[in-house]
Design a protein that fits this description.
This protein is an alpha/beta fold. 37% of the residues lie in helices and 15% in strands. It has 15 helices and 14 strands. The strands form 2 sheets. It has an 11-stranded mixed β-sheet, covered by helices on one side. It starts with a strand and ends with a helix.
Length: 452
């Protein structure tokens, strides 16, 4: 399978199964419409009025050489089917330190932090039991991860501190290491907390939607006041004081800011070059939800952002836009390309009460409660359901050129919109394919120009 597309006059061909990306001329581009269906002489005859015999013969030779090298029309590396690993190792936990939030963001999938449950903070005992569960359930695996999440996890910062210390002590005794991450709206991010996160090498995801008017429209305090000034100032102070901290600014764009490239560049111009801006996931009844008729504008905006990032790269300004980062190699990461995040079997979410769910977005959907940190996973049927949800089992994925990059999309969104984790949310699929074309275009220029 190949995927052909043109971006600003550049003709690119992706060989889906090998991951090889080719920049081709007009002759090869046109011949690939007929190849391999027509034989050499038939191709020469077909294009005799357009190109010289020598041009066509040279293009065919180029195509055949790439086919011989396994870089064009390569076979599926797994023959169109895959049996995921049979192990039951848990690699990462998302600890919900707080089912409460100090903001009231309109588009919040977590119901303003409570996930549809009574508000609460994770007690130390529950957090410690969760870490014990992870260290046991990870089996012989040495490196595991803990993501502190909410609601707003910094509302329970003292417990975060205790759990980091507890986890490192227990992990060390077992010859393991825990990598910690915290996702925060930055309202509580003061100097002491910032110093602690940096000193303890905790990665940070910071929520900022972009320009003041965009951020303040939906990311508000309970009384309706916008949070941009406090959040932007806290982020600036934190990152200026800790230039080596591992971070991403994570925003959301909605129907209100289809010109979201301006928000990405706003954050970059504030001095934050590591940015992730996601399309909102919401049902059409919401006024901020993306709609089918918005897609041409969204596509154009991704293209605009691509051109701007390319121009900045050529001027020496490196911008790390998360959704344009792709790995062109398969190798050992192929299983991850097939199954994605590992939700439901390698990655689990833990509520403040200690209940286990496939991921943070399934919390509050009682039919997906998998167990708790005391008894472990008691729903092996759910674990197997998620283990077998991959690009060869999801509806339409095996025929999609983007399958090895999107891994079948988000299980939670598929369930929310289509009632099944095996039926992807199509609007998200279309946006993913567009982002991938932009990312591949940037990758082509990066290769041609010797890296940036």
């Amino acid at each position: 399978m190949i995927h052909k597309f043109i971006f600003d006059g550049v003709r690119l061909v992706l060989d889906v199964n090998s991951g090889a990306l080719h920049l081709v001329d007009r002759v090869v581009w046109n011949l690939l419409e007929e190849y391999p269906g027509l034989q050499r002489e038939e191709l020469v005859a077909r294009y005799a009025d357009v190109y010289s015999r020598q041009e066509v013969a040279g293009a065919i030779e180029e195509i055949e050489q790439l086919v011989h090298q396994g870089l064009l029309f390569a076979g599926d590396p797994l023959g169109g089917s895959w049996e995921p690993p049979g192990h039951r190792i848990v690699k990462a936990l998302c600890l919900h330190l707080a089912h409460i939030c100090n903001l009231k963001c309109s588009y919040c999938f977590a119901g303003q932090g409570s996930f549809g449950e009574p508000a609460g903070l994770m007690p130390l005992a529950v957090g410690q039991q969760a870490i014990d569960f992870l260290l046991t359930a990870s089996g012989p695996r040495r490196h595991v991860e803990v993501d502190f999440f909410g609601g707003e996890p910094l509302l329970n910062f003292s417990i975060l501190e205790h759990l980091v210390s507890y986890g490192r002590e227990k992990a060390s005794l077992l010859g393991k290491e825990i990598k910690y991450t915290v996702t925060t709206n930055a309202v509580q991010l003061n100097d002491r907390i910032g110093d602690y996160l940096d000193d303890n090498r905790i990665s940070v995801i910071l929520s900022l939607d972009g320009r003041r008017e965009v951020h303040d429209r939906l990311r508000v305090f309970p009384g309706g006041r916008g949070s941009y000034e406090i959040v932007a100032n806290n982020i600036s102070r934190f990152l200026d004081s800790h230039p080596k901290v591992d971070y991403y600014l994570r925003g959301t764009f909605t129907r209100y800011n289809l010109d979201f490239a301006s928000d990405v560049l706003h954050m970059v111009d504030l001095g934050f070059p590591r940015v992730s801006v996601e399309p909102v996931v919401a049902f059409e009844g919401e006024d901020y939800a993306l709609r089918e008729e918005d897609l041409p504008l969204v596509y154009a905006e991704y293209e605009h952002l691509t051109r701007e990032l390319l121009a900045r790269s050529r001027r020496g300004q490196q911008v790390d836009f998360y959704h344009f980062n792709i790995d062109m190699e398969e190798g050992a990461c192929l299983p991850k390309r097939l199954s994605g995040c590992g939700a439901g079997y390698e990655y689990l979410a833990v509520t403040y009460k200690g209940d286990l769910y496939p991921c943070h977005q399934f919390v509050g959907r009682p039919e997906y409660r998998m167990g708790d940190v005391y008894k472990g996973i008691v729903r092996d049927d759910l674990r197997d359901l998620f283990r077998h949800a991959h690009v060869y089992s999801k509806e339409g994925c095996s025929a999609c050129w983007a399958r090895f990059y999107c891994s079948g999309g988000c299980h939670a969104n598929a369930h929310a919109f289509n009632g099944s984790i095996h039926k992807p949310y199509q609007l998200a699929c279309r946006l993913m394919r567009k982002r991938l074309e932009c990312a591949l275009y940037l990758q082509a220029w990066r290769t041609l120009e010797g890296g940036w």
